[in-house]
Amino acid sequence: xxxxxxxxxxxxxxxxxxxxxxxxxxxxxxxxxxxxxxxxxxxxxxxxxxxxxxxxxxxxxxxxxxxxxxxxxxxxxxxxxxxxxxxxxxxxxxxxxxxxxxxxxxxxxxxxxxxxxxxxxxxxxxxxxxxxxxxxxxxxxxxxxxxxxxxxxxxxxxxxxxxxxxxxxxxxxxxxxxxxxxxxxxxxxxxxxxxxxxxxxxxxxxxxxxxxxxxxxxxxxxxxxxxxxxxxxxxxxxxxxxxxxxxxxxxxxxxxxxxxxxxxxxxxxxxxxxxxxxxxxxxxxxxxxxxxxxxxxxxxxxxxxxxxxxxxxxxxxxxxxxxxxxxxxxxxxxxxxxxxxxxxxxxxxxxxxxxxxxxxxxxxxxx
Length: 367
Prior knowledge:
The chain has 367 residues and is of the alpha/beta class. The chain has a single domain (9-361), classed as Glycosidases (TIM Barrel), CATH 3.20.20. Helices cover 35% and strands 14% of the residues. It is built from twelve helices and nine strands. An eight-stranded parallel beta barrel has the order 1-2-3-4-5-6-7-8. α10 (303-312) runs parallel beside α11 (343-351). The longest helix has 22 residues, at 263-284. The radius of gyration is 19 Å and the shape is globular. The two termini are 22 Å apart.
C-alpha cells in the first residue's frame, strides 16, 4: 500500500449498543477518528464531488482526484437553506438546493456513496437569519434570543431543525443503516460575521442554542450524529471554553483558521488554535480537528508542504478540511486543479505518510 492504514479493531470493540445514545456506526466513527490521529489526519474538501473550478454537477468528478488519482478521505457539505426545503417522504424535495446550489438529493447520494467506499462526512450549516430570512451574514438583528424557548421565532426554528433531522435520517445505505455524520453548526462563533457570533448573543444564549439543537436531534432519532464545535481565532483555552456547549454534547473540538496574505500571522494563529484544542482534547478526552482552513487561490506554489504540513503535523488532529472550489467565482478555490501552480507540491503532500486520502481508509469497515 502507498501508506499504512489506520486499524479499527478498537472501534469495533467500542461500538456497543446505545452507549452515549449514539448509533453503533457513530460510535465506531468516533473511535476511527481517535485511531486516525495516532497515524495521521484525514484530508477533507468541501463540496468536492458536486462541482469544481470549471464544472458543475458533473458525475464522477473531483478536482482533487483529477490531480492525485484519489478522493479526499472526508467530504464536507453545507445544509444552508434546508430551512426552506419542501417536505415529502424523504424530508425535502428533489428540486431543493443549498446556498451553493447543490441539490440536497445529490448531496444525499454522494454522502451514501462516499460512506460505502469507506469515507467520512461532515455537514456544516450556514443557517438563515430567522428574523429576516437573509443569510448567515445578515447580522442586523439579534436573532438568537428570538429562537430560544419562549422566543417569537422559536417554533419556526424548531421546524428548521426538524428539516435537518428529516434529511440526515433519510441518508441511509441499502441495508437501511443511517450514515454517521459529523454535524458542525454555529461555527466561527467567536467572530462577529454570523448572526450567532459573540457580538450578537450572550455565552449563555449560545449554549442554550446548542442544547436546544442537540435535544431536538435526539428527539427526532438523529442519533447517528457526532457534534463538532469550531470557533475561530482562539487566544487560549479559557477563551475556547467561554461558549463551549459542554462535554455531554460535543464530540470533536475543532477550530477554523484561514491564511490570507500574511504567512507569519497564519502560522501564529494556527499554532495558538491547535495548541489550545490539543490541551483541551487531552483534559476533556475529546477528538480534535482542523475543521476549516485554506489559502484562497493558493498563490504559493509550495504552500502544502512549505506552510500547511509542517505547521499541523505536530498536532494530533484527526482531520482537516479545506474549503470549496467555486465554479462561478474563478478566484475562489482552496484545492488545486489541473494546471494550478501548487499541483506538484500537493502531490508531495498527498504522498506524505501522515496525509490520509480515501484509498488509505476505504477498505476499513466502520460497522
